[in-house]
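tool=predict chain=A
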Amino acid sequence: MWYLANSEQFLPLSLAYLQRLLCLRIETIMLSTMRAVRAASSIQKCIRLSSTASTLIRTRGAVHLQAKAVQITQRRDHGVIARQKRKPRPPGSEAMSEVDGASIVASSLKAHGVEYIFGVVGIPIIEIGMAAQAHGIKYVGCRNEQAAAYAAQAMGYLTGKPAVCLCVSGPGVLHTVGGLANAKVNNWPMILIGGASDADQDGRGAFQEYPTLDSIRPHVKYASRPATLEAIPSHIEKAYRTALYGKAGPTYVEIPGQLVTETIEEEYVPLVSTVPSARPVSVPPATIVTQAAELLKSAKKPLVIFGKGAAWSERGPTLLSQFITATGLPFLATPGGKGVVPDDHPLSVASARSTALKEADVILLAGARLNWMLHFGLPPRFSEDIKIIQIDINPEEFHQNSTSEVALLGDVGETAHVLRNALSGWKFPPNSPWLTTLTEKANKNRATVEKMVADHSLPLNYYAAYGAIRDFVTQNDVLVINEGANTMDIGRTMMPSVLPRRRLDAGTFGTMGVGVGYALAAGLFVRDFAKKTKVLCVEGDSAIGFSAMELETAIRYKLPVVFVVINNGGIYRGLTPEDWKDVEGDPCLNLPVLSLTPEARYDKMCEAFGGRGYFVRSVDEIRAALTDAYSNLATGGPALINVIIANDSERKQQEHDWLTRKSKL
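tool=predict ok
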């Protein structure tokens, strides 16, 4: 394999590994030889068929039979049209070099601008990973396919173009289902490339044979399986385009094992046009925009809500910030929309969220969905008479759970821009009773929170622990990954975002286990594109358990990530070390189902992989650990700060339960 023979990075491979690859190559050559013999026999058959057809043409003079004879001679015994060259080769010129399927996959991805692959390799896709590196695509080897899928989609969201998850056939592909579903619900672009057993062994009980194409199809926008080497480029092109355009999401290309190592002359590989990275945008008709403008002007209690669709829009953050400044409208963001307009903007009413949602009479919903996160847009969390103006690129989101009074189909940012022009000269009164009510409510809620932040008694409560983290986040440009139950819910309010796409969490799907995978992508992103940005992954002790082995991945690749584990010994809450010791009998019967090991040493786990660990209990210790961890990040690598808090610490009292269980249909 040319990429093995000519790339110095593969020299350290073990002798046993090289022997295994050599055996695979010998087996492939033997199979190819057998196929060639069969093909030669088929050619003789075609010649005989052609001769018979020519006789028929001479005796009957039928033109249509002549065309049939041409088709016969162009086909092989398995029914595939003979390979077509890109263009005629000049007389006397040498044949082009041969390429294998792995190289065709890699070159096709590279042609579309793919820069990152996250995966777990094995038979039959080892060579694809090698070929990708030889083509200049960065490969990150993860410890679990699900984490690799989370990393790929997060990188797609951060960079604005699909990254790839690469995995083996059968169970390897199936392990990605949680990640694919998460990407589909979040509308984040990624491409899954999975192996499959050799096509000629289908239905015979081949190694890891499984109907993965059918299994994956419900979880992706597009799924395909090229049958020939020549078909690979077009399948990759469509997977890339479909993942990126329209409502973004995951796609899947399945590569049968025999295609990975089969070879073809390069001139027979079709050239496929590349997909422009700039996504098409549109705006709604002027008449509809005017209706929206008039409805906003009539509102007594207007509110703007934006979600991650606003962050995904190419110019969304810039144009929405201009819209808010020009109109003076109060706003709040969903977790994915945080930072589209800075959280510290004077018109942000996030601290008065419940009041804003319940009392608003007109809501401009920009790139957000009326799902469980916004309580379906229904009473009692929303007004009975609420009127909603909705901006979305997907018309299927309109009238979901609550009627859209005005539906604006188009790019969030560009539509906000034309709506701002339609409102030119109008601004919501800054001294209105509505803004006064929201400001007073927000100040009251902040005061309640700050009392808990100021309580430094040990063991710490959530808010006191977050107080030290908040100070660090507000003083630096930080890309935050946040995962857990209370850890994430409290983190959404305690870690402000002032820039778009600076927060990744469990999102719309509420997926636990995403955190460390997201952190891998974030670490690579800031390393390559935003060197002054810091990556902080704040996990609950339950959440980090889903993918803690990826700490080794982060350390292996020397990614600039600091992890913080908010450790209360359980899911929501746990037991104190003293209560833990008092548990008698069978733990399967007597340990509370929410309990985890109290004060588990996750910091030691990080140290075992070669990173640095900190075990802290106080606010001052948290501050010191953050400073030291980031000061030594370049030389010491990733670090983990294990923060012990009270096992019974909770969120502040909420006016409504976070999850809407009963709603008006």
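The chain has three domains: 98-268, 286-436, 455-644. Residues 15-60 form the longest helix (46 residues).
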